[in-house]
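Quick question: what would this complex look like in 3D?
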Amino acid sequence: MSSPAILRQSEDRMPATTAIDEAGPAPAAAPAAAPSFGTLALRWYRLNRAGLRAIAIGIISLLAFLLVWHLLTTYRVVFFVRFTNVPSPLAVYASFTKAIHDPKFLMHIVLSCRRIFIGFSLAAIVGVPLGLIMGRFKLVHEIVFPVAEVLRPIPAIAWVPMAIMLWPTNEQSIVYITFLGSFFPILVNTLHGMSLVDPVLVRAAQCLGARERSIFREVYFPASLPHIFTGLTVGMGVAWVSLIAAEMISGQYGIGYFTWEAYSLVQYADIALGMIAIGVLGLGSSMLIRGAGQLVMPWRLK
Amino acid sequence: MSEILTKAPQGHIEVKNFSLGYDSIEGPVEAVTDTQIHVNPGEFVSIVGPSGCGKSTLLNAVAGFLKPTTGIVTVDGERVNGPSAERGMVFQQYSLFPWKTVRENVEFGLKMRGMARSQRERAARTLLGLAGLDAFEKHYPEKLSGGMKQRVGIVRALATGPKVLLLDEPFGALDAQTRVIMQQILTNMWQRLKISVLFVTHDIDEAIFLSDRVYCMTARPGSIKAEIPIPLERPRQQSMMMSSEFLALRRGLMSLIREESIKAMGGEITDLGMQGLNIELHGHSLADVI
C-alpha cells in the first residue's frame, strides 16, 4: 500500500489542499506504518474515556455503599432507623457461602424462576398477539379495551385472594399472579407500538404488492417490536414484584417465601441474602430480555 | 433483469372527470375538482401547484390509496381499484423499511410476488449493482444519507417492473445540492427505462428539467389550470437550466404558480404583509424605531 505514488501524492497535496483537509477527512488516508501498541491503547482510552469513567465511579460508589452498610451495622446505629438487628455485609456473605451449597436454597431460586418463566411467557404469548390484533382491528379493540382498562389498575397483589379461589393449586395461583403482573404492561405497550406505526410504510408495502397478512408480518409487527420489547422489560419487572408478593403471602417455596421465612425464623442475614438474590435475578432477567431485543432488532444497534 | 429494462412501453394513465372530496363539520369539502389528466406510455409528466392544491391527493388516487368521488382513474384501460405493484410509488419521506437492509428493501416487492429467496436476492443485487448501490446492500436505511435513501426508494419501486412510476415530492426533503444531483440521476434512469412517470412537485425548475409535459394546478379546490409541453431536447443535462428556452418556460410557469400561491394563502396575505415590514429605519436599529 505504501507505494511511492501515494507518498508523492501526499507530499503534493500539502500546500494546495489544506482547505479540503479542513473540510473533511483527507481523501488519501494513506495507512501509515501500523501504529504502535502504545498509540493504539491511548486512542482506545480516548474514545472510551467516558465509559471507563462511569465504570470506575460505579465501582467506587458500590464499595462506598458496602462500607456505609458495614459501619452502620457494626456500630448498630440507631437514628430514627434502627440498625440494631440488621445483618452486616460480612454476615450476609457468610450466609451466602453457606446457602449456595444448600439444595433447599437453590430449589427456592429454581422454583421462583420457573414461576416467572411460565407466568411471563404466558403473558407474552397472550399479550403481544392480542395487542397486535387490537391495534389492527378496531372492533377487537373496542370490545377488549374497556375490560382491560377496568382490570389494569388493580395491582396483581390484590388478586391474591381471588387467585387462591380461582385456581385449584397454590402453584397455579402464584403463576397466575405473575402472569397478571406482566400481562398489562406487555399489552399496553404493544398496543402503543401499533398505534405509532408509520402509515406511509404501510402504503409503501401496499404498492409493492403486499396483502393484509404480509403487511401485518412485514410492517406492523417489526415496526411495533421496539415497543413490544419495552413492554416485555417493564412486564418482567412487574412480574418479579407480583411473584415475590404472592410468594410471601401464600407460598411454600420460592425466594420470596425464603425471605419472609428468614424473618419468621429470626435468621436476619438470610433476609438480606433473599433480597439480594431477588435483585440479582430481576437484573439478570431484564438483561436477558434486552439481549433478546438486540438479537431480534439488529437494525437498532448503534 | 433485462426483461424489466427492455419492456415494451406501456402504462397509459387516464384520469377523467375526476373530483375528490371529504366530509367535514362545515359540510363536504372539495380537494380536487373537475380534473382530467393523462400520461402517455413512456412519458414523464409532472404536476406542479401551490401547497394544499390537491396534487398529492390526485397522485394518491392514481396509486389507489384514495377513491375518487366522481370520475375514474385507469391505467392501460383497467380501472384503478386500490394499490398494486403495477404502480410503483416513491414517497417524500423515503419510507424504506428500517428493519430491512437495503437489499431486503429492494427485494420486498419480489418477495410479495412469491419469488424464491435465492432468485430475488440475485435480482435485487443485480439491480443495486446497476444503480451503483451494491456497496450498501447490507446497510440498514438509517445509516444512509437522504439522497442514498431515495435512490434505494426508487430502485425498490422499480424492482417489480411496474407499468408506471408515481413520485410524490421525492426530493422535497433533500438539501438543494443533493436535489440537483438526484434530478440528474432520475432523468438518466428514465432515459434508459422509458417508463411512464407521474411526478408531483412544487419545484418549478425540477418539473421543467425532468418532464415532457407539466400540469399546473389551481389553488384549492385544485383543478388543472394549464398544461405546458416541455420541448427541451433529451437527454437532459443540468446545464440546460441556464438556456433561454428553459428560462422562458420557467418564467411562464412561475407567473402561473405565483398567482395561485397567493390565492392559496388567501386572507393570510395582504398588500401590506407582502412588503414584509413597512418601515424606514433611517440608520436607526429596528429596536430604536419601534
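Answer marked as accepted. Chain A is about 75% helix and 0% strand.
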